[in-house]
Amino acid sequence: MISIDTVVIGAGHAGLAVSRLLTEAGRDHVVLDRGRVGERWRSERWDSLRLLSPNWMMRLPGWDYQGSNPDGFMSARRFVQHLEQYAESFDAPVVPDTRVLEVSESGGYRVSTDRDTWRARQVVIATGPGVPRVPAGLGKVVTAASYRNPAQLAPGGVLVIGASASGLQIADELNRSGREVHLSVGRHTRLPRSYRGKDIFWWLERTGRLSRTICEVRDAAAARREPSMQLAGRAGELDLGTLQTDGVRLLGRYDGTDGARARFRPDLAETAAAADARMYRLLDAVDVYSGEVTDTDRPPALIAPEPIDAVDLRGAGITTVIVATGYRPDYPWLRLPLCGPDGHIQQSRGITAAPGVYVVGQRFQHRRDSGFIDGARHDAASVVRHLLTGRAACGAEPAA
User: Fold this and answer.
1) What is the CATH number of the domain that holds 216?
2) ∠ at Cα 104 (60, 364), nearest 5°?
3) Domain count of the chain?
4) What is the pLDDT of residues 102-134, one digit of tens each?
């Protein structure tokens, strides 16, 4: 058994942010990962994916974007290189190809892997969103995490379930490749790519939306369930209206299957109208912040098609179902009673009920941008401050 002060689980952007701060503090630690640095971006992203946030937001502790295109959007491959260069910049103690099998209490914490066993005083969990959430009754599907490109799929039409960032972009790519695409739309967060000449993330940061804390929202659980933004990592708009114009068939929320028939709720118009209303409220706030009084073009509201309650998959020529409905938490190796009824690790500003065990990178962990690449630096700083001093950041309380 190897004794060490701190084990960080996960060598993505959040785990590396913690590692950088621990290195600066001279704290002995390792970063364990089942693959390589940025493994999810290597093996669980489609080929053409570009990040939703612009390059200028690739901010990590001690490491900002220094390229020539701050307003562009990195490909997944380029982002992996960004993380590799970051890890190399401070000689991050990453132990790759190491699968964690168990984290348990044992005179500190015992971290068992398929290679070695570590005894640590502290553990920081930075493992990402979990595993794809797949609706029951669908049979064999392709998830957004396993989709790579149109050529991977069997010939024929495609049903995409989920219309947030991943589902929207995959549906668009398949449609452009000549496929017949049906898109099942659930609750989503609609935003324009740009507004008043600025990227929407510029406005979200300037108006304080990204720094809003979980303490400032009325319903913390609902805020953490908020769907990802309906955006694409490129200039120009991509939304339900542009997809519909391009020939994608829009359907309501997926509601199960009857044999070869997929059922859908007649709620598309209502769901889209609610998303449009939330978007317009945000743009109203941007207008107030900017002080602009001139009219400006806004994305038009979706004119929803007549609802369809079911589609015969075989009759419609659909040979592939792609599920892009988000992720569910998955900690089969965690032998500590830290997860709530929803499966998420319970925490306050990354501090859990187990002394010395922390989490970084959860959606809306403390700030609205906690789940974004750019936001991890704030949570990493809070966690490392507590790890080093035992003092929580202002407003933090032990998790229930």
Assistant:
1) 3.50.50.60
2) 35
3) 2
4) 999 988 999 999 999 999 999 999 998 999 999
Task: Give CA separation, 163 vs 74, 141, 157, 213, 270, in Å.
Answer: 22, 16, 17, 26, 15
**188 and 126 share a domain?**
no
Give me the torsion for CA of 80, 85, 91, 96, rounded to 10°: 20
What's the burial of 68, exposed, middle or buried (CB within 10 Å: 0-12/13-18/19+)? exposed
> What does pTM read for this prediction?
0.95
Same domain, 275 and 343: no
d(CA 105, CA 118): 12
Are 51 and 197 in a shared domain?
no
- One domain, residues 264 and 370: no
Question: Is 395 within a domain?
Answer: no
239 shares a domain with 202 = yes
**Residue 285: which domain range?**
138-323
Measured between alpha carbons, how far is 232 from 12 in angstroms, rounded to an integer? 21
Residue type, 104: S
**Three-class DSSP category at 195:** strand
- Rounded to whole angstroms, the Cα distance separating 372 from 57 reads 9
Residue written as token pair 């001093």: 389
Which residue type sits at 77?
Answer: R
Q: How far apart, in whole angstroms, are the C-alpha atoms of residue 320 and residue 140?
A: 9
What DSSP string describes 312-362? Answer: ETTTTTEEEEEE---EE---TTB-SS-B-TTSSBP-BTTB-SSTTEEE---
Interval 3-37: pLDDT, tens: 999 999 999 999 999 999 999 999 999 999 999 99
Q: Which of 91, 75, 125 is nearest to 376 (CA)?
A: 125
Closest Cα to residue 96, out of 185, 36, 146? 36
294 and 199 belong to one structural domain:
yes
**H-run or E-run covering 174:** helix 165-176
Handedness of CA 256, 259, 262, 264 (dihedral sign): negative
Residues counted in the chain: 400
Are 101 and 115 in contact by the 8 Å Cβ rule? The answer is: no
Are 111 and 222 within one domain? no
Query: Shortest CA distance to 113 belongs to which of 10, 202, 23, 26?
Result: 10
Q: Which residues on adjacent β-strands are paired with residue 125?
A: 9, 359
User: Mapping DSSP to helix (H, G, I), strand (E, B) and coil, where does residue 100 land?
Assistant: strand
